[in-house]
Amino acid sequence: MLSPIELNLFPSCPNCLSWSADGELAIGAGEYVHILTPRNIKIEKDNDENNVPKIEPTEKTPATEQWNITRFRVNVFTNQEWPTIFPQNRNDFSIGVEQSMSTVAALAWSPPGLSKHRCCTLAVLTTNLLLSFYEPLGPQGKWVRVAIVNHSLDRYFSGIIPEFALRFKKSNIRSFTWFSAFKVPDVQRSGSSIHNPYSVPSPATRWGIHLLAVANDDNDVLMLETNRMQRGLDMLGSYSIEVSSVISLCEQEGSYPMMQPTSLFAAAVKSRSKVSSISCGPWSPQSNTAEGTYSRTAAVATTYGTQLKVMKFHVKFTTEEQSSHKLEYSLVEYPVAASVQKYREYNFTGPLQWLYTDDSQTVCLAAGVFGGLVTIFFSKAAYDGRYTTSSDFQVSEQFFGETEQGEPGHWEPIYAMTTALNEKTCTRTLHVGTKGGYVSTRLFPNSSDKPHSHIPSWAKKLEDIREGFDLDHDLGGLAIARIWGLASYHGLVAAAATMHPGDMIEYRTAMNERCSLIFSSGNLDDDEPGHPTFPKTIVDRSPSFLRQKREAIYGLILTAAQPDDLSKDIWSQRLIYSASCCAVVDGENKELLPLAQRALQQLADITGADLREEISKCIGDTESNNIQPKSTAQLSGPGGYIFEKCEICDTGISWSSAQEALCETGHLFVRCGLTFLCIHEPGISKFCSVCNTEYLNEDLLRTAEDERGSGLGGIFEMVLEAFDTCVYCGGKYRS
Fold first, then answer.
1. What positions does the domain Transcription factor IIIC 90kDa subunit N-terminal occupy (predicted)?
2. Residue from 1, 149, 135, 14 nearest 65 by CA
3. Is residue 299 part of a domain?
4. Engineering a disulfide at 240: which of 227, 250, 457, 710 sits with its beta carbon 3.0 to 4.6 angstroms away?
5. Same domain for 428 and 373
6. Does 172 share its domain with 235?
């Protein structure tokens, strides 16, 4: 049960909340970012035939005990990360940026799959205009900075702009947003007529390509392709960030259309116009121009000055030989932006939020304006850039608290905006909150195209907290609730709010800073009273299900084993031997035994190891499938390094199970859930965060092999890449 929680912090920016796909909630508060991870989870096993554990949150738990709360500083930089810059000319240098406290200005989680263990990367923009990536490091989960995006911009512009001052200005970042993951087609499966039942799609197909949109201090919008490259314990410099496309907004007119264009004031304001908000729409498939070529288009909306600018980002995916691919990017001004002038009448202030569903025929853009909200509806043709008629493009407006005279009653800017997806009805609900505490919701798709009159339960809970604050401080009903952030996760909505007096000057110390987090259902149709819960996760631990998952692992290993991969690769030899033994001991698919026999024969020819017992069991000459421990002569003889040996008593280890290992003297060890190798020490493991299955930590293995001047090998790396999450439940790993 997610009860409201009160934290000792004060938000420092609009949209201060961001909820990752892994369930981690980030809050930007001054010099710190607070990370909340749900904690109170208990596993209860049903007494049924399948023995299925159910993971559910515990009930009647204090709010502060429902989360693991940690925080880290974001305003501490080394001289290499943020070098000292001497004053430049006034057009390219801002003393305010240099003297800022580098507090949090914006933050957002990436789509899953970019960070280590395929988790989400946290991007944090600070007031010194640096955009940093953060990841947890080590068993304690210490959050560290792993990349600075500004360095990639500086490298890109260094070959174009020789002047340091202008290049420094173009390297500063004003706003950013993540694209939804661009998932490429499965080239291996679609391009081959022979289907391997044990093949696994590539990471680009499962997780997609991660793209980032940023706006710099010179009003350039840049698209960046991000990849995590480093695979060791050292996380610094572990990201590859490359600029793919750039478009400049400086030459476009109409950033402040309400002023006289030829006046000195207009010229001064134009030079200070900045991109304050940026948002990326969904990917729209395009018709394929040739065989093996796939195209996708996404819209990018920005608020430049007081106007809304829309651009089209086009990606073309081309398959090449040996299952490789090539990506081509282009960023151009949206055709709709030049064809329709109606939305130019509004004073856009941001933020921006796209609303869409998979089966809807329209895409909606919600944009904050002065005193209200404007929603722009794109038909599929208009969104794809094939704008034809005015009926493909519609604009509706909503002024907050409109009075009888037609004037807005709430002038505060929008500080929070998010959408919640209802998977049952395939609808999205837009939640909006202002700095003055005004709340608005909208349902998409909605035939009436009017704001929904229903008040979400998080707004009702916020009103209860405001009334309590008013009574505690005897404010006579003049207490004000300021909404700082809204975030959604699997149909849940979290709201961050602070309480203030409305008729006096407020003074508070850091000790008295309080921020309330409120949770509720984000869907208006099933918005019930009470506290919401996290979605239930069911993990199947039945023996048949686990055996099926293990078969998928060693089936892939045995089908991919080739003699060339085994000649000099020690770790791949050990992996193929363990997979062959697992097929003999644990497998029920007799079709894999010839593959195991072939792999064992290749190992015997290459290493000289005595594998007659294993080969005979593949043929079926013996009644028992158990493989006896190797003798001392076999362990020290040719190819003995592929056999498992007890680290305690130096005796051989038998093969009787794919989950446990037992030596001759009775020492019991657990086997890795992926490689089936014996784990002799607890410090070399990683675990699934859901089902707690134990795995070998490949980072420690890579570090040890790098010191010896070798690596883990092609097949070993292939298996680690194919099964980068828990094989048995799909959970993320934790070190």
1. 19-520
2. 1
3. yes
4. 227
5. no
6. yes
Highest mean pLDDT among 27-31, 409-413, 701-705 belongs to 27-31
Q: What's the CA gap between 311 and 223, in Å, rounded?
A: 12
Cα gap 35→27, rounded to integer Å: 7
pTM comes to 0.90
**Does residue 156 share a domain with residue 121?**
yes
Helix 570-585 with 612-619: angle, nearest 10 deg: 40
Domain contains 402? yes
Sequence-distant (6+) residues with CB within 8 A of 422 are: 428, 429, 491, 522, 523, 525, 526
Token duo for residue 368 = 């904050």
Domain that holds residue 86: 74-186+198-248
- Which two tokens mark 74? 């974001």
**Residue 269 included in any domain:** no
Of the pLDDT bands very low, low, confident and very high (cuts 50, 70, 90), residue 472 is very high
Mean pLDDT is lowest, of 119-128, 153-162, 195-204, 625-634, for 195-204
Percentage of residues of the chain with pLDDT beyond 90: 41
What's the number of domains the chain is made of? 4
Tokens of 261: 């264009």
Residue type, 248: S
Distance between CA atoms of residues 422 and 51, nearest Å: 31
385 and 294 within one domain: yes
In a shared domain, residues 112 and 160? yes
Choose the final residue of a domain: 230, 248, 266. Answer: 248
674 found inside a domain: yes
